[in-house]
Design goal:
The complex is a heterodimer of chains A (461) and B (266). Chain A is of the alpha+beta class. Chain A is built from eight helices and 30 strands. Chain A has three domains: 227 residues, P-loop containing nucleotide triphosphate hydrolases (Rossmann fold); 108 residues, Beta Barrel (OB fold (Dihydrolipoamide Acetyltransferase, E2P)); 106 residues, Beta Barrel (OB fold (Dihydrolipoamide Acetyltransferase, E2P)). Chain B is globular and about 70 Å long. The chains are: A alpha+beta (461), B mainly alpha (266).
């Protein structure tokens, strides 16, 4: 199987916008022959758009897609050697099961005796033998999805595209179908490109997971690497449960967070560098012996989750951590905690404060983000180009959008143990990052204001 | 008691609505020249209606009516279905405007449609006759077909067209093998509706038939009545038309019910 390492699909600098909104932004991705690749991300992150570009239902604005080294950007969908399983099945209601599955074969002028045997084999593959003459409208959701899969694989495509195929099924059915899909993938030996927003599904099924957010690829990797070594706080938060905390890399192999210093295995961050620290809830060990603990805390809540207990602990320095353990600890009790150096995951911070570009209107007034802000007297002239820095802490969010200098929508919320880190998208399309103790919800519309003394202005050269 | 009066009211109302057509139906089975004079049961009027001879022009009118209805209904079904698919794939404001433009001809009084078509044909210098009547009927029937096909498109899973392309169908094949079977019930109800509307039409036909002696049933009856006294054969004719329309209506209703049931099952 030397060919196994071949690249079957190559995506280069692919971009697509709907009106003002950039849904895909400079996507580069290689997909190997026979691989099970999952495009994972929250709704509206661009993963489905990428799948539609691959199938040929939409055209990219920029960039190209090649398959087996051939540019397929201009090839219409009916000539592409790939088939799609749609989210809402998209079976043809006027045809029975057999005719639905035979649809593609008949179009390709396959001899009728071959059609019969191939349809039967496809039906067997999806465990739907003897359903040939059934009306598709009389089938359950799970059965319809099986027929939809059979309809796609019967054409022996080199690549199978699956657009959230299990999203409409109930949990039990979904788990069963996941296992069957994985088996089908290894039997058929073809490339699967699978779109989902369910991170557990992605980790279970895939050889490679591609994490999407806001039209960009955040991380590409094997499920285990994505889980253990997330590259940024978005991936860490999206994949599995995690404690994401602000920290400082003191020196190589030593990091400080939640008010304590820990030994870790990360190197090369420099000294006294601000970092993000990720610890999975199952990686914090609870012990009754307080002397030997790295730090102590009080159990705030304890909930049984089937296999393990999920506990929230307030540490001695006032941080809140989520911990999963097979044993229950009494609420209110004081316990000790330990973390192994290899379980502390350190990530470089993408930014340590907001940086905006603006223009002075007067010595004490600056225009940025499409609005005017008062600032302390800078001594700069009107028209000077400036760079404005604002600490995350110093941006105030207001209940009413009219009260702020501008307004925006809360896009992403990250809990950092003792505060929330919010990404707020302004109506001009800029991101403002805010640290706050107040509780906001996703897609809240908020007013944004910044006190004059918190604008740190330097002249741009 | 209250229930009794409610029932009585309903039946009285129905009786009043249907009395005229029932009377015509009854008196179509007697030979009397004057309506309201029962001279014993006979199917003579039915026989003479179809044997023609003296009523050659009436038979011509029937033929014209049916052939015009058939051509107009077929053409408007094709045009209306294509238009519905086009409108369905439009977005936003354009779609709203075109939908409104499609609704206006249906609300427009027939007489206005008739006069405006008449003026159009005159100003274009087209001599009026069979062709202009057919064109006029296509014009006022097409919006009704659009109205019948549109809901089928809206109920359709939007992915099935793409699914057909994905399985190797060209856009034309996808239209023929997937979209048309899906909207066929709407096309058939649209056809039946267009057919009955065309047979029923008087005002538009009157203004567009010209003066070459072309008559459809409605214009023939109108002219006949103005000459004084209705030809007795009109009684069996009206009865037959009523029976045919009733049959078509029943078919439309049964189809609508069956479709609703099928959608529920989905």
């Amino acid at each position: 199987m030397a060919k196994q390492s071949d690249t079957i699909i190559k995506i280069e600098h692919l971009s697509k916008s709907f009106g003002e909104k950039r849904v895909l932004d400079d996507i580069n991705l290689d997909i190997k022959r026979g691989e099970f690749v999952t495009l994972l991300g929250p709704s509206g992150c661009g993963k489905t758009t990428l799948l539609r570009l691959l199938a040929g239902f939409a055209r990219a604005d920029e960039g190209k897609i090649s398959m087996e080294g051939r540019d397929i950007s201009d090839i219409p969908p009916h000539k592409r050697p790939l088939n799609t399983v749609f989210q809402r099945y998209a079976l043809f209601p006027h045809l029975n099961v057999f005719d639905n599955i035979a649809f593609g074969l008949k179009l390709n002028k396959v001899p009728s005796k071959d059609i019969e045997s191939r349809v039967r084999r496809a039906l067997k593959m999806v465990s739907m033998t003897d359903y040939e003459s059934r009306d598709v409208n009389s089938l359950s959701g799970g059965q319809q999805q099986r027929v939809a899969i059979a309809r796609a694989i019967v054409n022996r495509p080199q690549v199978l595209l699956l657009d959230e195929p299990l999203a409409a099924l109930d949990l039990k059915m979904r788990k069963d179908m996941q296992m069957e899909l994985k088996e089908m993938h290894s039997t058929l030996g073809i490339t699967f490109i699978y779109v989902t927003h369910d991170q557990e599904e992605a980790l279970t099924l895939s050889d490679t997971v591609v994490v999407f957010s806001e039209g960009r690829i955040q991380q590409i990797g094997a499920p285990i690497d994505i889980y253990n070594e997330p590259v940024n706080s978005f991936v860490a938060d999206f994949i599995g449960e995690s404690n994401i905390l602000n920290g400082t890399m003191i020196r190589d192999r030593e990091v400080e967070f939640i008010g304590h210093r820990f030994e870790c295995i990360d190197e090369g961050f420099g000294q006294n560098t601000a970092v993000d620290v990720v610890i999975r809830p199952e990686d914090i060990y609870l012990i009754n012996n307080l002397e030997n603990a790295a730090f102590t805390g009080t159990i705030k809540s304890c909930t049984f989750k089937g296999v393990h207990y999920e506990m929230f602990v307030e540490t001695d320095k006032g941080y809140e951590l989520m911990i999963q353990d097979y044993n229950a600890f009494e609420v209110g009790s004081t316990i000790g905690m330990l973390v192994k150096p290899s379980d502390i995951h350190v990530m470089r911070k993408e930014r340590t404060c907001n940086t905006f570009e603006g223009t002075m209107i007067a010595p004490d007034k600056v225009e940025m983000l499409g609005a005017e802000f008062e600032c302390n007297d800078t001594g700069l002239k009107a028209g000077d180009k400036v760079r404005v820095r604002v600490d995350f802490r110093n941006v105030s969010l207001l209940d009413y959008k009219e009260d702020g200098a501008l307004f925006g929508e809360v896009k992403f919320i990250l809990y950092k143990g003792d505060h929330y880190h919010l990404t707020v998208l302004t109506d001009n399309g800029d991101n403002i990052y805010v640290d706050t103790n107040d509780i906001w919800d996703n897609s809240d519309v908020v007013g944004i204001s910044i006190a004059p003394r918190h604008l740190r202005i330097t002249k741009r050269v | 008691m209250k229930r009794f009066f409610a029932q009585l009211y309903l039946w009285l109302l129905l009786a009043m609505l249907y009395a005229p057509i029932v009377i015509i139906g009854i008196f179509s089975f007697t030979e009397s020249k004057v309506l309201g004079n029962w001279t014993g049961f006979s199917t003579e009027l039915y026989t003479s209606l179809f044997n023609g001879g003296a009523h050659h022009s009436l038979l011509d009118a029937i033929k014209n009516t049916l052939s015009i209805a058939l051509i107009a209904a077929t053409a408007s079904t094709i045009l209306g279905s294509i238009a519905a698919i086009g409108i369905f794939n439009m977005r936003g404001r354009k779609k709203q405007v075109i939908n409104l433009l499609n609704d206006i001809p249906m609300l427009n009084p027939d007489i206005i449609t008739g006069i405006s078509l008449f003026l159009l044909f005159v100003s274009l210098g087209i001599s009026q006759g069979y062709t202009t009547v057919v064109l006029a009927h296509i014009a006022f029937c097409t919006p009704y077909v659009v109205l019948n096909v549109m809901p089928r498109l809206q109920q359709m899973n939007p992915n099935i067209y793409e699914a057909a392309l994905d399985l190797g169908a060209t856009p034309m094949q996808a239209l023929r093998k997937v979209i048309i079977p899906e909207i066929r019930p709407g096309m058939i109800s649209g056809f039946i509706l267009a057919f009955t509307l065309s047979i029923d039409d008087f005002a538009v036909t009157l203004f567009t038939k010209g003066n070459e002696g072309l008559e459809t049933l409605s214009t023939y009856i109108y002219a006949d009545a103005r000459k004084g006294g209705l030809t007795p054969e009109l009684r069996p004719l009206s009865t037959i038309i009523f029976a045919v329309v009733l049959l078509l209506l029943i078919i439309i209703n049964i189809r609508a019910k069956r479709n609703a049931k099928r959608n529920q099952a989905m």
